[in-house]
Amino acid sequence: MSANTLRGLAAKKGLLVGSAFSYDAFRKDPLYGEVLAREFNCLVAENEMKLDVLQRVREQFDFGPAEAMMAFARQHDMKVRAVPLVWHDALPEWARDKTFPRQEALDILREHIFTVMRHFRGRVFAWDVLNEGLSDKGPGLREEGPWYHSIGPAYVERVYHWAHEADPQALLFYNDYGMDGMSEKADRCYQWVKALLARGVPIHGIGLQYHVQVDKHPTPTEVTQNIRRFNDLGLTVHITELDVWLPKNAAEADFRLQAAVYRGVFEAALAAPKCPAIVLWGFTDRYSWVPGISNGTYDRALIFDRDYRPKPAYEAIASVLR
Ligand code: G3I
User: Fold this and answer.
1) 90 Cα–ligand 1 center, Å
2) What pLDDT score does 1 carry?
3) Does the predicted TM-score (pTM) go above 0.85?
């Protein structure tokens, strides 16, 4: 491992620098795996550990794509964190737009959690047990998806207790977007998790997704403040899906701004008491969800360009880690 790569520099700081892993890109593009292994020491499956892939057919678990990533991680001595065990999205046909009888929904979730966590036990150090469970605007939980509709709010505590039983060594996270800084949603998440912890719910960490635009993002100071208050609850914090969106016709100055945002995120994390992992939602602009989800208005959100050339953002991160 070269000392001058991101993973070389991060190792000296005891920091995990990770990336989402796309099975499709890995299979068709040899450079993808080469740069991933050279620069990162942690992987997250972008889609291969979601319910719509693991149980495309109900009760027929397909670990194939995820195991390709696990083999790659083992070969290159990379840690693996996993997302999401429970989510209102990325649902297979048999669960999409469904409301199950309550006990059946509980059985589905319990079986999924035990089967998947037991399968990866000892190879995945952290799980986002629940992803995006909080409402975006109003108080309380997001009222969407088969789990909330079939079980009600009680599904949250059940899934964390099952996850802890399935793998007592794994770190269990709550992961969400729009709560990277001192936002209203972050305030609600803070109060909600504090109450869950008071009821003995086994949550060990918070995942801040950190999908931001180059001109719309929290300041590093408020990010550190946000991380610190969760740390004060005894929780660790991971940045789990970092990308910094550029407008389609970005000018050179925008790339320098993007670099400053990436620098700010790493500085904020390193300034906080406990934020030992920063994961990017991909690393090359060649493979990114951003153009699709933004109908092409945003793009080039990552730190390597489409030809795997490091962008100013890469240098900015490296300079923080040196
Ligand atoms: O693999 C199938 C392919 O066989 C099929 O031909 C194609 C056309 O339907 O779909 C492919 O699956 C797509 C998959 O990405 C792989 O490309 C799914 O339709 C598509 O919905 C899926 O999108 C993913 C999305 O989550 C929903 O699961 C994005 O890649 C992924 O970046 C995105 O990631 C989420 C995090 O999990 C949670 N936080 C937000 C983040 C962005 O939405």
Assistant:
1) 7
2) 65
3) yes
